[in-house]
Design brief:
8-stranded parallel beta barrel, two-stranded antiparallel ribbon
């Protein structure tokens, strides 16, 4: 079967599955905030130290002098010792943790937190984490200074998120250039430096505009320019959603459909439905493309298994049980437990980076 036809049918099947799940589990949707209400909310959140952008207009008009000192962390990134932090035999596995907890920007994460609540996002084992992404469903999400301070004290890089969702408006503005400079890339780099964090996750989950034939080429240029602007000490991670042909089609590994994006960035954050076979194929693909194996981050989703709702299941790694509470099967912080089954199947050396996207019901250790 023609590969393009197969991709089209897979894309249709994924969308039908999502519509079926949404229909079976539908509930009334509260009306969203008006633009005026969003601006007022951003102002209130700014007094807590939170910075984010809902629109391209807000992002494009931001200036460094807009910053309030309470929104800036005061802890530089500490350099870890050259010793093997993970205490493993053989090559050290790198770990990136992606925060995604109830929309983010909670009061307890602010610079003037209220009394602690009973359920809060927690990361107690930062000695095992190399980088941390603060994720929220905003167009641009800047990590709160409380998080960046905590992470930097433990030698962990703090990353923000650029998120293009299916409902995001005016996505053509993402790739607007003036004299060869991408406006959004320049703004993101300035935001990184002003707010003292360490890079970006770039997540585009909307198909490219049909009228824009060179969208993918310019997007590769955008990633390269953002990476250049933020500098070698920071990171730009590409999420495995949009393919080089301009469609959202999760590859669950490194393939020709996302290779150019991965090569332009510092890393590829894969979708969560990969398999051992995909892992081996990605290793070979990385070698052929001269991409370091440590730049491919295989996602393990600790939460979003829809076993408690009706509709087609969403199975992620490991295939038997798939993520969620079953992630203990591979060992959350025992990374050697992840490597062992790969090695036992004949893999001489697995790819060196793993990514966990998790929600934990506990207290935040600041």
């Amino acid at each position: 079967m023609n590969s393009s036809i197969f991709r089209d049918w897979r894309r249709i099947g994924r969308r039908l599955g999502k519509k079926l799940r949404d229909g079976l589990n539908s509930h009334p949707v509260a009306p969203g905030l008006s633009p005026e209400e969003r601006r007022a909310q951003r102002l209130r959140d700014g007094f807590k130290g939170f910075v984010y952008f809902d629109t391209f207009e807000g992002l494009e008009t931001w200036q460094p002098q807009d910053v309030d000192p309470i929104q800036q962390p005061n802890q530089p990134l500490l350099i870890r010792s050259s010793g093997n932090v993970h205490n493993e035999d053989g090559p050290k596995t790198k770990l990136l943790l992606c925060h995604d907890y109830q929309g983010g920007y909670h009061d307890y994460e602010g610079v003037r937190p209220d009394l602690l609540e009973s359920e809060m996002y927690n990361c107690r084992h930062l000695q095992y984490v190399d980088s941390f992404i603060y994720f929220s469903h905003k167009l641009v999400c800047v990590p709160p200074p409380t998080w960046t301070n905590c992470l930097h004290r433990n030698g962990v890089k703090s990353l923000g998120t650029l998120l293009i969702e299916p409902q995001t408006l005016d996505i053509g503005r993402l790739l607007t250039r003036t004299d060869g400079i991408f406006t959004v890339a320049k703004q993101l780099a300035d935001i990184t430096n002003t707010y003292g964090f360490d890079g970006w996750l770039v997540n585009v989950e909307q198909d490219a505009p049909e009228v824009d034939k060179d969208w993918s080429d310019r997007l590769v240029d955008f990633i390269s320019q953002l990476r250049e602007f933020v500098g070698d000490q920071k990171e730009v991670i590409w999420y495995d959603a949009l393919t080089i042909d301009g469609y959202v089609d999760y590859q669950n590994g490194l393939t020709p459909s996302n290779r150019r994006y991965a090569k332009a960035a510092d890393g590829l954050f894969t979708n969560y439905k990969w398999t051992d076979k995909k892992l081996a194929q990605s290793k070979l693909a990385a070698m052929e493309a001269a991409i370091p194996g440590g730049n491919i981050l295989f996602g393990i989703d600790l939460w979003a298994q829809n076993t408690n709702i009706r509709g087609p299941s969403r199975v992620t790694y490991p295939p038997k049980g798939g993520g969620g509470t079953n992630t203990g099967l591979v060992g959350l912080f025992n990374l050697k437990a992840i490597q062992m089954p790969l090695k036992s199947k004949g893999y001489e050396r697995p790819l060196e980076r793993w990514l966990f996207r998790c929600r934990v019901r506990s207290r935040l250790d600041l």
